[in-house]
Amino acid sequence: MIFDSHAHLTDPKFRKDRAQVIENALAQRVGQILSICSFFTEREAEDFVELLEDYQFIFGSAGIHPHDAKQWDKLWPKLEQTLQMRKVVALGEIGLDYHYDNSPRKVQKEVFRQQLKLASAQGLPVIIHSREAMEGTLDILRSEGVGSGVMHCFSGSEDEMKVCLNLGLHISVAGPVTFPKASGLQRIAQTVPLDRLLIETDCPYLAPQPVRGKRNEPAFVRYVVEKIGQLRGMSPEQVAEITTQNARRLFGITGS
Q1: Residue from 198, 203, 239 nearest 220 by CA
Q2: Which terminus of the chain is more exposed, N or C, with fewer CB under 10 A?
Q3: How many structural domains are present in the chain?
Q4: Are 176 and 225 in contact (CB under 8 A)?
Q5: Any domain includes 94
């Protein structure tokens, strides 16, 4: 079984065929999925509730993305409400994004800190987004004493990976590991301790090389599994089993 630890199944790109996308995933042995709720529109909130209620093997995470940090006052009550759902097992994705700067950096930092405090108070692991902002992200994680979570779609250096590991975080690898020129990320995938490794699609974004240019979906996480297996001299089945158990342990998911 494969665990896709980061998918955006309530994204509008899946609205017309979400059920088929989930069937596609099951056909490729993707047995569990963590779906991320970030936008908090009325439609997404409804879809998120329906998704978790209808599919036993789909779990949820909710957080205010750094793009939307400037809407904190509006989104905060919706986030608190969503976190009360029984199958919400993490807080995120949250963090810093200095590539687009859709929210002022000062506001991003404050909202990031507020959500880290909330996660700590509720005993939830965090899912961290960091784009062109790794130094600031790590500074805040250190100062807030975060010890349970994952660096989603990791794109940092080996030294930054080591800092994340020392903080107690997992490292999640996505479709870019399959890109021909992704030597740095491939090195990360080879060297991260196996008990801290997660895999993800970040769908509908970041489709792996064999399907690059298409809408990504959980079924395509198998290409990430296969690439990591090649890099580490392991079978895809071994990679799938280890990363599934890591995700289940991190997110407190028990049972079949």
Answers
A1: 203
A2: C
A3: 1
A4: no
A5: yes
- CATH number of the domain enclosing 91: 3.20.20.140
Contacts of 181 (CB under 8 A, 6+ apart): none
Summarize pLDDT for 29-52 with one digit per residue, the tens. 999 999 999 877 889 889 999 999
Q: What is the mean pLDDT of the chain?
A: 96
Let me know if residue 256 belongs to a domain.
no
Asked if pLDDT for residue 255 goes beyond 90, the answer is no
Percentage of the chain with pLDDT > 90?
95
pTM of the model: 0.97
Residue 235 in this model has a pLDDT that exceeds 80: yes
Half-sphere exposure of residue 242: CA atoms within 13 angstroms, side-chain side? 19
Mapped to the 3 state alphabet, what secondary structure does the chain carry? Answer: CEEEEEECCCCHHHCCCHHHHHHHHHHCCEEEEEEEECCCCHHHHHHHHHHHHHCCCEEEEECCCHHHHHHHHHHHHHHHHHHCCCCEEEEEEEEEECCCCCCCHHHHHHHHHHHHHHHHHHCCCEEEEEECCHHHHHHHHHHHCCCCEEECCCCCCHHHHHHHHHCCEEEEECHHHHCCCCHHHHHHHHHCCHHHEEECCCECCCCCHHHCCCCCCHHHHHHHHHHHHHHHCCCHHHHHHHHHHHHHHHCCCCCC
- Distance, in Å, from the CA atom of 246 to the CA atom of 252, rounded to the nearest integer, reads 10
Burial category of 255 from C-beta neighbours within 10 Å (exposed 0-12, middle 13-18, buried 19 and up): exposed
Whether residue 156 is contained in a domain is answered as yes
> Is residue 123 a part of any domain in this protein?
yes
